[in-house]
Specification:
Elements (H helix, E strand, L loop, with lengths): L8 H8 L5 H8 L11 H8 L4 H14 L3 H13 L1 H13 L1 H9 L12 H4 L3 H7 L6 H21 L4 H26 L1 H6 E7 L1 H4 L9 E9 L5 H20 L10 E2 L12 E2 L1 H10 L3 H6 L4 E5 L1 H15 L8 H9 L8 H4 L10 H15 L11 H10 L5 H25 L10 H10 L6 H33 L10 H10 L5 H12 L4 H18 L4 H15 L3 H9 L1 H12 L3 H8 L10 H4 L7 H14 L3 H28 L10 H32 L5 E7 L1 H4 L9 E9 L5 H18 L11 E2 L12 E3 H10 L3 H6 L4 E5 L1 H15 L7 H17 L18 H15 L11 H10 L5 H25 L10 H10 L7 H24 L2
Parallel strand pairs: 2-3, 2-4, 7-8, 7-9
Antiparallel strand pairs: 1-2, 1-5, 6-7, 6-10
Length: 999
Amino acid sequence: MTAPGRRSSTFTRLLRHGFTDPSDAERLLESVELAPIRNDPVLLEALGGTADPDLALHGLVRLLEAQPSPADQRELLDTVIAAKPLRDRLLGVLGASAALADHLARHSGDWQALVMYEPRDLHPEVEEFEQGLADATDPVSLRVAYRRCLLSIAARDVCGTADVAQTAAELADLATATLRAALAIARAAAPEDAAQCRLAVIAMGKCGGHELNYVSDVDVIFVGETADGADEDKAVRSATKLASHMMRICSETTVEGSIWPVDANLRPEGRNGPLVRTLSSHLAYYRRWAKTWEFQALLKARPVAGDIELGEEYVAALEPMVWTVAERENFVPDVQKMRRRVVENIPVAELDRQLKLGPGGLRDVEFAVQLLQLVHGRDDASLRSGTTLDALQALAAGGYVGRADAAQLDAAYRFLRSMEHRIQLYRLRRTHLVPEDDADLRRIGRSLGLRVDPVAELTREWKRHASVVRRLHEKLFYRPLLDAVAQLAPGEARLSAGAARERLIALGYADPAAALRHLEALASGVTRKAAIQRTLLPVLLGWFADSADPDAGLLNFRNVSDALGKTPWYLRLLRDEGAAAENLARVLSAGRLAPDLLMRAPEAVALLGDGDGGRGLEPRSRGHLEQEILAAVRRADGAVQAVTAARGVRRRELFRTAAADIVGSYGTETKPAEADQGALVDRVGGAVSDLTAATLAGTLRAVVRDGWGDTLPTRFAIIGMGRFGGHELGYGSDADVLFVHEPREGVDDHEAGVAANRVVEEMRRLLQIPSADPPLLIDADLRPEGKSGPLVRTLNSYAAYYRRWSLVWESQALLRAEPVAGDEDLARRFVELIDPLRYPAEGLDEDAVREIRRLKARMESERMPRGADPKLHTKLGPGGLSDIEWTVQLLQLRHGWAEPALRTTRTREALAAARAAGLIPDEEASILDEAWVLATRVRNAVMLVRGRAGDTFPSDSRELAAVGRYLGYELGHVGDMLDAYRRTARRARGVVEDLFYGG
């Protein structure tokens, strides 16, 4: 007897053998049923070898309790102790699957299915499973027989007799036998229908690929034909009845549960299409309507039940279409779209636990293998396997995948599939989520042989294998291309030139010959530079292929690398700083502007890294920019050198802004695209406007210092107008300005005027001198009298003009006036001068409102470029920028005197103020804001993509696709983008009609 407070020796032994609840286990061992063997050391040793000893012991006691007689109990106990194969199988299953333990408790004689240990029992195939299901005559008996067969598969799995690939194949063979048995039951129930038709069942997905899970939908397609000259319509109806009945037999829940759902949604037209089609109907659909993913699905098509001859005809007829899918016109955008992991529908809380769909999951491996099969299987029949691991092995043997990569991917896939099997086996439920409970993780870890610290070891191994998949997923496509051109590993099978070309075309490269030349230049040789680039390129090439112009991305990368390759920090930056390489790939492949800016000063690539706390792409304030530019001006020798330095800063900061805009719009693997499109627009507009103001301030200082020393004879200020004054400049915008001056004491007006004009002329000249830096064009056409008036006026001259001659359009233009450089006191007094004009007391009279409307209507009719589609013109088209800005400005002119919040130069701020003041309903304000943001984004995109400004969508298909990618549309969806723009603009125009013309 154990002393109080001390644990029994049995308790201690149970702990040592892996039991987590020794007290309950001790109680179960004391049960009457286990009395004959409770002290037998073999039992405890065997239980300790299972995945979950507590679960195994509990299941064994339940099985003994379910035996119909003491003699049956004794037979079971004797066999468990005497027959090691049975003991390992039975206890292994009981310790891994509560669901199969429940089955044995209900069907107490089924443990006998585990006694057999003949050689043929090691790896049964369809024939053996058909024998196991032969006595099933209805859905209930079929389920019982199915689980009896499943017992033997699970036993071989958990005991290690079968590896994960063999287990998956056996599960597919059992599914095949089950579909045949279910179809036989359906045919027996409707002999007349059976006589009318030939019905073939084609397995798809994992069943077709001979790699099924324990619990998975069994994907099928049905093909029907007439039998003995029957009417085709009647035959198809009969085949449909049989197919539907067969699906119900497998899927419906009975007293014995269900087997698995039979899913026919991969058929032509999915669930909207007929369940059964004739062979000719299938062929007609695939020839005319099928999408790339449907041919990808057919990689795994395999006839399994019904009329096998008809099924083989189906596969033979479709096979040529499958292996020529890479020649289809839309293959490249389809592939690029499919290559992106679609995880949006996975709840965020589940993403990190997803074995199948998450990053580094099973689907990454399966998709990568299938894509390479589609690209290269046309010319190499050895790749045409529906089984993932067999296809991966064939790809490695043919040189389409590196052998080392294939080996790592094979090991990772096997481990992840083993985890998936163990997770599903426990409850026989369809799931791909790794559980969070430690008890579940412990059971899974122990079942995979991780016994020291099962939870920690399992988590570590899972994360390691998922990381391998993530790392190799992209490299799988590109590393063989580098091996083919670098030729560093003798004896390794390599891609042929033709295979390399096919792969590059499939991944979106329009000029594969040039791409291979670039790869050879970058990756060949034994230098440190080439070695690092061979490491970087597989990932970079994948990011390039994610863009609309992979060729440009690769060419630009070669150019940057040629310029910086000998600079020690460059390759170290890309290799060691996580964000830099991906940011660079996005920037180089998104269009012409950013790469052009970068190539003029490649050292700006340093901005793309994680340095400075990851703030390299954050816009700098106007104060910081002015400080840097003015310091450069002070150090310069003369105005030309000073303005060159200022323009260099401007070029670098334009690149920073463009790069941040591109990265924010595309997103990265660690950070999704910016959801707030308005924030992106405001960031660009503010950054470019601040940069322009700082550049003008530096240029003004340089010109004054060069011509007059420290003091100009006249006070001088620059007033930003239009988008510049509104902090809304785009990449290609001119700087709209007014120049105002005021003679200093003792300086006559003529001398002051000459000096002011010289300043303006010199500023314009210096900012437009041809150089490596983009010019900054100064536009003063909004000045009094327009192009006919003087470039510079005194403050008194402005006052006299506005007092006597000012027109309503000038008051409207002055709504955007804001000082940007020069004498702050003079600029302040200029603002005081114009405020009564732009915010007139009591608002505009009706004559002025009519004049504004007349001017707007004339502009719409006269300024639209000939041949342009008005509905897609972002500036002058209906619902475009002009519509929205004139509407907002009319509200400012009419109500700014009474609503201080409306006194802003910024369109979105004024619109928000009008909404807050109740001048425009919330919904209408949102419509205008959305349209303004979208139109501005399109203009920014056009400049980024084409390298020159434009107000309409590009006509070139690749440029149009690049605009779409910037706006968040996948490749192949430019039509959706244009429709969305038209729809947004149309709604905005409706609001404009109401507020501007009707209000």
